[in-house]
What does this fold into?
Amino acid sequence: MRGFRWPPPPDGGPRTWGPGPGGPRTGRPALPEPETDLVTTPHGVRLERLVTGSGDPVTVFAHGLGNGIATTRPFGSGVTGRRIFFQFRGHGRSDAPPGPWGYPELARDLRAMADLGGATRAFGASLGAGALCRLLSESPERFERLVFFLPAVLDQPRGEVARQRLTALLDAVESGDASAVAEVVSAELPAAVRNTPAGWAYLRQRLDQLLRDGLARGLASLPDQVALPAAGALAAVTAPALVIGCAGDDLHPVEVAEQLAAALPAATLHVYDRPGVLWSERADLRTRISGFLNE
It folds into this structure.
């Protein structure tokens, strides 16, 4: 199998070793980063925000650990109304108050963004799904429709794989070594996507953001924490919910998605049969999310 190589080819590659033609030089580039603003929340933490679209309904999008606005925007591409994307504390240009932080603090960030923007619908990916669960356990009637993408934690800590991945990413970003960061981030890509134009575009975008803005050390303890004391805390959530899981994903065990769907009274569960759905099932994923939220 071809290994990951850094730095990338000057024109975005891909490249191969040995005889034979290289692959196609075309591919969809990653979304460019638009201008964002900093919003002071009622709890005093400034959070980076991007608002797109117009009108109602309003949907807030919460990203995963070590990710941010750029990686969350594709989920909202077909969603009608106004869309609010933001960066949790410790990510991007958002403040990094003294840590460590837990899901109560992340839920507070999410609630502030939703309240300030008048959001009635919510999407949470991975870490964002956990923050959304925590918010709902405190305010079960806050949203009218809910989407949880690859939930990673409910009432049990995430485990050693997630801990090692986050520690490696924090260490690499802190070192400022682009190649070290690239090695860690490349693990987010399916093997078939690495050394392709789309893969290099994604990798460059992630590196630009991580090396420019960094990641706060206050995030380091999150894999050891739980979003809820017990999944039963979601029993009062009556809003229709879509829970999306994926078989074979070590960072987002399908069992967590199944547990979450069982805990939510009005949930629909969809499980993809292999990891890497952002690359292999992107069109279906976008249609599924927008179709549910646009009802």
Summary: Strands lie at 37-40, 46-52, 58-62, 82-86, 121-125, 145-149, 241-246, 267-272. The CA atoms of residues 65 and 92 lie 11 Å apart.
